[in-house]
Write a structure and sequence with these properties.
Blueprint lengths: L3 E5 L9 H7 L5 E5 L6 H8 L4 E4 L6 H6 L5 E4 L9 H6 L3 E3 L6 H16 L2 H11 L18 E5 L3 H12 L3 E5 L5 H7 L2 E2 L2 H7 L2 E4 L13 H6 L5 E4 L8 H9 L5 E4 L19 E3 L8 H19 L19
Parallel strand pairs: 1-2, 1-3, 3-4, 4-5, 6-7, 6-9, 7-8, 9-10, 10-11, 11-12
Length: 332
């Protein structure tokens, strides 16, 4: 009997991984290896050189990795984004990339909504001022302050999470518009959302919520041109990927008063450097890339990853394939 090797490179070797282990350990035809967190292509390759399946997070799976791991049949990404995996190289070498596009949709939409409300109502500024300076000092923060209801929410991209955010905006009686040239008109019509150009979205929105996936085309696409078109009373929210935004341009827009503030869960470089100017801005709400966090949501995702890995070891495919062009020549 041929034993298949599944290697985990996303977390430290001490991580218990109970859901994945339940699906993979104790199987006579599967060996589950917890290699620990790998941060460079060379480290990844060292871990997966003899693997049949790899389970990954944010570590880089590059052409170097796929070329040097001839048995590797599939890489399963913990989450929605696959920007740390070279999909073209994976396809070239016959490696299937599995991902979970239906993972954490309500969680991230709720997080974006929380950031929007916290910005709009100046939640953190009010809290800090009340604690440190007293009740009367908060009066200086009470204007300007938007209504939310009746205002315009602009969605950058219109995928699953953005649509969930749009539904939440409409529940608050907001007018919802979106920019996504890849989504058919009938989807916008079904969701009751107006399709607009990128420039029009920047110009009309009172709140911009960014849901753009990161790839070669989108890296840095939200820049000083976009921010210069926004209202000076508008807020920018990002729960997608930090690198779709030119962070220096965002910082400049905040410093120059081109926009009112921002709510950010993602950043160009993570973790944030201690000297990042965003950390000192009172009109910016920051969270540490945790929009997807929910214990039960993670548990269910991990079960699916373990089941997918076992299925691939026995010749099957994961639930969702990110690089469908590989299917006619995948490694078996």
């Amino acid at each position: 009997m041929s034993v298949k090797i599944v290697v985990h490179t996303a977390f430290g070797p001490e991580a218990p991984l109970p859901s994945e282990s339940a699906a993979l350990e104790g199987q006579p035809d599967i060996k589950f290896v917890k290699a620990g967190k790998r941060r460079t292509p060379a480290e990844v390759l060292d871990a997966v050189r003899d693997a049949d399946v790899a389970l990954c997070g944010s570590e880089p799976y590059t052409a170097e990795v796929f070329a040097g791991a001839p048995k590797l049949k599939a890489v399963l990404r913990y989450g929605v984004g696959v920007d740390t995996i070279d999909l073209d190289a994976a396809t070239q070498y016959g490696v299937v990339v599995g991902y979970y596009p239906d993972f954490c949709i309500p969680e991230v939409a709720n997080h974006a909504l929380m950031l929007m409300l916290a910005c709009s109502r100046k939640l953190l500024q009010m809290d800090r001022t009340l604690r440190e300076e007293g009740w009367n000092a908060t009066r200086a923060l009470r204007s300007p302050m938007g209504c939310i209801h009746g205002e315009t929410l602009g969605l950058l991209a219109f995928g699953n999470i953005a649509r969930a955010m749009g539904q939440r905006g409409k529940m608050l009686d907001m007018h919802v518009i979106a920019y996504d040239p890849f989504v058919p008109a009938e989807v916008f019509e079904h969701e009751g959302v107006e399709s607009v150009s990128l420039e029009e979205l920047a110009r009309r929105s009172d709140y911009v919520s960014c849901h753009i996936p990161l790839n070669k085309q989108t890296r840095g696409m939200i820049d000083k041109t976009f921010f210069s078109q926004m209202k000076p009373t508008a807020y920018f929210i990002n729960t997608s990927r930090g690198a779709v935004v030119n962070e220096a341009d965002l910082i400049a827009a905040l410093q120059n008063g081109q926009i009112a503030g921002a709510g950010l869960d993602v950043f160009e470089k993570e973790p944030l450097e201690p000297d990042n100017p965003l950390l000192a801005m009172k009109n910016v709400v920051l969270t540490p890339h945790m929009g997807s966090c929910a214990d039960e949501t993670y548990r269910l995702r991990d079960i699916r990853i373990g089941q997918d890995a076992a299925r691939i070891c026995r010749g099957g495919l994961p639930e969702h394939v990110a690089n469908k062009a590989v299917l006619d020549h995948r490694r078996t």
